[in-house]
């Protein structure tokens, strides 16, 4: 039985800051951002946007394309949890009006969480072929102002319907995995900004890629040349380029002129103009590839590398299905990105410095351009979400 991604949808904030603006204000050469890390714009969530609203906004367009009563599992991968007890998946389940005969769970392992959710959802569908699972990756990347990580902030969500006989991507059974207990990136409960050892994290990311690939190759016998395209976890765009160069070298492949662009270029566009979205970022890359590839990828095998600091990594693969273009959200994605509002540096810092209320009182949040789902306020420590469209 074929199982994989039936439908996929991407959402990001309606606000961004141009990294040239950030660089100029911080006294940094813009080339450090544009070329050094490969980023151009950074999505900024306003106060009435969080991982739940982004998740629901990503999911709604694909929920409308199926019978939602078939969804009996909602899995939400994130490292930006909003509650120490209640799963973000439960909030989204309610906002989308899904069946009560449904499991809803949140998963955490840094940026790997959504990939864990995909594979758990696939195992579930194999036992119940008529069911569908809603899998979500949604995160807000947040670092201290003026820190080295600041230009790699961003936000976004990807929602996927995992089913049998998928119309977008059949995912292979075999995958290569690698886990190691390291401290390359972490966020203690008492902080709302992440901490990262950047150079060490890069080394771990690349080492884990080699180890996950070896495990994958042992199981499948496939080689580098068996893949038409590759998607990588994207903390910043240049990281994927380094990873692909590393994997090619590890496999004894010399990349010719144009190979890097051809093999991963289309996967990078969305991330370059939205920034890091942690658990969602690998699948933002997949959306970017599917939406932007001039070549029909039907029947082509895609290599997928997921990495979560701490660390867990996985290399897996899938085959794009014939006719997939008819089921994409390409036009909606393009419209969303084109209509975003640019922030000044002052507006960016003002939004950054707004803290979520922790006094247990009643707070109504100003309405920004967040839609159709938004965070309207908080009362007695309870978040209040509304559907405004």
Question: Helices and strands in order, then pairings?
Answer:
Blueprint: E1 3-11, E2 15-18, H1 19-26, H2 31-37, E3 41-43, H3 51-63, E4 71-77, H4 88-95, E5 103-107, H5 113-127, E6 132-141, E7 154-164, E8 169-171, E9 176-179, E10 185-186, E11 195-196, H6 198-220, E12 229-232, H7 237-250, H8 259-264, H9 269-274, H10 281-292, E13 301-308, E14 312-320, H11 330-338, E15 341-342, H12 345-353, E16 363-364, E17 373-379, E18 382-387
Parallel strand pairs: 2-15, 4-5, 4-6, 12-13
Antiparallel strand pairs: 1-7, 1-8, 2-3, 6-7, 8-14, 9-14, 10-11, 13-14, 16-17, 17-18
Task: Provide an overview of this structure.
The protein is α+β, with helices and mostly antiparallel strands. The chain has one domain (3-387): Thiolase/Chalcone synthase (Peroxisomal Thiolase, Chain A, domain 1, 3-Layer(aba) Sandwich), CATH 3.40.47. Helix content is 33%, strand content 25%. The protein has 12 helices and 18 strands. The chain has helices spanning 19-26, 31-37, 51-63, 88-95, 113-127, 198-220, 237-250, 259-264, 269-274, 281-292, 330-338, 345-353, and strands at residues 3-11, 15-18, 41-43, 71-77, 103-107, 132-141, 154-164, 169-171, 176-179, 185-186, 195-196, 229-232, 301-308, 312-320, 341-342, 363-364, 373-379, 382-387. The strands form 4 sheets. Strands 1, 4, 5, 6, 7, 8, 9, 12, 13 and 14 form a 10-stranded mixed sheet that branches. Helix 3 (51-63) crosses helix 4 (88-95) and helix 6 crosses helix 7 (237-250). The chain is globular. The two termini are 39 Å apart. The mean pLDDT is 97.
């Amino acid at each position: 039985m074929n199982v994989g991604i039936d439908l996929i949808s991407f959402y990001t904030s309606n606000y961004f800051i141009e990294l040239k603006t950030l660089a100029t204000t911080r006294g940094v050469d813009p080339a450090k951002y544009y070329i050094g890390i490969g980023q151009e714009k950074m999505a900024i969530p306003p106060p009435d946007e969080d991982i739940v609203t982004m998740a629901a906004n990503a999911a709604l367009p694909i929920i409308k394309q199926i019978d939602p009563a078939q969804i009996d599992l909602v899995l939400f991968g994130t490292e930006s949890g909003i509650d120490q007890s209640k799963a973000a998946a439960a909030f989204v389940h309610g906002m989308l009006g899904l069946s009560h005969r449904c499991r809803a769970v949140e998963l955490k392992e840094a940026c790997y969480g959504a990939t864990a959710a995909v594979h758990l959802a696939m195992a579930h569908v194999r036992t119940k072929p008529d069911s569908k699972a809603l899998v979500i990756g949604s995160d807000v990347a947040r670092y201290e102002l003026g820190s080295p990580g600041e230009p790699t902030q961003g936000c976004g969500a990807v929602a996927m319907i995992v089913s049998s006989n998928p119309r977008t991507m059949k995912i292979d059974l075999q995958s290569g995995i690698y886990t190691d207990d390291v401290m390359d990136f972490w966020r203690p409960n008492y902080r709302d900004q992440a901490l990262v050892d950047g150079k060490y994290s890069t080394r771990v990311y690349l080492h884990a890629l080699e180890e996950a690939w070896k495990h994958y190759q042992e199981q499948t016998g496939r080689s580098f040349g068996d893949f038409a395209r590759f998607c990588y976890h994207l903390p910043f765009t240049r990281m994927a380029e380094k990873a692909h160069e590393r994997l090619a070298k590890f496999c004894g492949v010399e990349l010719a002129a144009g190979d890097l662009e051809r093999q991963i270029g289309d996967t990078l566009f969305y991330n370059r103009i939205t920034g890091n979205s942690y658990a969602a970022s690998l699948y933002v890359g997949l959306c970017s590839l599917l939406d932007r590839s001039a070549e029909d990828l039907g029947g082509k095998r895609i290599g997928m590398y997921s990495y979560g600091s701490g660390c867990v990594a996985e290399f897996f693969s899938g085959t794009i299905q014939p006719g997939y273009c008819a089921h994409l959200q390409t036009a909606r994605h393009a419209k969303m990105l084109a209509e975003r509002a640019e922030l000044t540096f002052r507006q960016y810092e003002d939004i950054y410095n707004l803290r979520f209320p922790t006094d247990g009182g009643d707070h109504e949040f100003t309405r920004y351009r967040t839609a159709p789902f938004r965070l309207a306020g908080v009362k007695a420590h309870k978040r209040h979400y509304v559907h405004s469209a």
